[in-house]
Amino acid sequence: MRNAEDVERFHEQILGAARWLVLTKRRNEFTVQEIVLRLREDYPEFTERAIREGIAATSRQTASARDGGSHVAFERIGPTAYRLVTRFGSATQVGADRIVVPGR
């Protein structure tokens, strides 16, 4: 990544891919490989390693230790499986065309 703006864009693309997968699958879970495949379609310049590191950087375990969890977007639920954290767009209910976030 060249600068902070590029890093921010990169993380937004990862988050967007996760949201798209959750909506498409109608359940709040996805694998690292699904994110990699989704992003590589539109952004072939993103390497698989960079995407994996980007997901890990915003997962609950990593971010909590680093900065109090203020940038947590994903929670690890398995060896390669994650889910969105509520404040970043996850929900208890996924509708046909939207994610319903409790309290909004």
> What's the number of domains?
1
Could you tell me the CATH topology label.
Answer: Arc Repressor Mutant, subunit A
What is the string of helix and strand elements? HEHHHEEEE
> Helical percent range?
40-55%
3D architecture notes:
- By secondary structure, this protein is α+β, with helices and mostly antiparallel strands.
- The chain is built from four helices and five strands, in the order αβαααββββ.
- It has a single domain (4-100), classed as Arc Repressor Mutant, subunit A, CATH 1.10.10.
- It has helices spanning 4-25, 32-42, 48-57, 60-67, and strands spanning 30-31, 74-76, 81-84, 93-94, 99-100.
- β4 (93-94) and β5 form a beta hairpin.
- α1 crosses α2 and α2 (32-42) crosses α3 (48-57).
- It starts with a helix and ends with a strand.
- 19% of the residues are buried.
Relevant terms:
104 residues; alpha+beta; 4 helices; Arc Repressor Mutant, subunit A; two-stranded antiparallel sheet; three-stranded antiparallel beta sheet; 5 strands
